[in-house]
Amino acid sequence: MNTLIVYATKHDFTRKCVIKLSKKLDGDFDILNLKENNVSTLEKYDNVIIGGPIYAGQIIKEVKEFCEKNLKELSDKRIGLFVCGMSDKDKMNLFLEQSFPEKLRNNALAKGEFGGSFVFKTMNFFERFIVRHICKTNEDVLNLKEDNIDEFAAKMNTKA
């Protein structure tokens, strides 16, 4: 099976999750960062995994635009959807539901949330201010949910 993993990232956490996920997938795969490249065609892929970070309750715009632009073609693929962020599980599941079109969500073979991180040196002033005041931390935090990535990969590796 050929798999395309498309994602966007702002502070690199999502890319790290994609790398971990790709090592657990069966078959051939390509990885495409939507901030750096455009998707020319989805034709050769059986599976398409789509994900990105949540900021202020919204998925990063490149992911949203990719889904809207390719919705018809994605309808014929085996789909996996994931989000990254630092909210609790229930909120992240709600963000996942709000971030992707209903047609994709209903057809998704795997859906998941992979955690998030706060890395202060990569944040702008406003981001640091928000994290300090809302999350009550001044320190870097890494919350990578490897078990969730493992579960997600297992679902994507099931044969149709």
Category by helix and strand content: alpha/beta
CATH architecture: 3-Layer(aba) Sandwich
| Fraction of residues in β-strands | 25-35%
CATH class: Alpha Beta
| Oligomer type | single chain
Rg from Cα? 15 Å
Question: What fraction, in percent, of the residue positions are helical?
Answer: 40-55%
Query: What is the averaged pLDDT score?
Result: 88
Task: Indicate the overall shape.
Answer: globular
What is the CA-CA span between the terminal residues?
10 Å
CATH fold description: Rossmann fold
CATH superfamily: Flavodoxin domain
Major sheet size, sense and barrel closure: 6 strands, mixed
In total, how many domains does the architecture comprise? Answer: 1
Output the number of helix runs.
Answer: 6
Helix and strand layout, with pairings?
Blueprint (H helix, E strand, L loop, with lengths): L1 E6 L5 H10 L5 E6 L13 E9 L2 E2 L1 H14 L3 E7 L4 H11 L2 H6 E6 L1 E4 L6 H11 L5 E4 L1 H12 L3
Parallel strand pairs: 1-2, 1-3, 3-5, 5-6
Antiparallel strand pairs: 3-4, 7-8
InterPro entries: Flavodoxin_dom, Flavoprotein-like_sf, Protoporphyrinogen_IX_DH
Protein name: Flavodoxin domain-containing protein
Pfam families: Flavodoxin_5 (PF12724)
Could you characterize the architecture of this molecule?
By secondary structure, this protein is an alpha/beta fold. It has one domain: Rossmann fold. Helices cover 40% and strands 28% of the residues. The protein is built from six helices and eight strands; from the N terminus they run E-H-E-E-E-H-E-H-H-E-E-H-E-H. Strands 1, 2, 3, 4, 5 and 6 form a six-stranded mixed sheet that branches. Strands 7-8 form a two-stranded antiparallel ribbon. Strand 1, helix 1 and strand 2 form a beta-alpha-beta unit. The chain is globular and about 45 Å long. The N and C termini lie close together (10 Å). The model has no long low-confidence stretch (mean pLDDT 88).
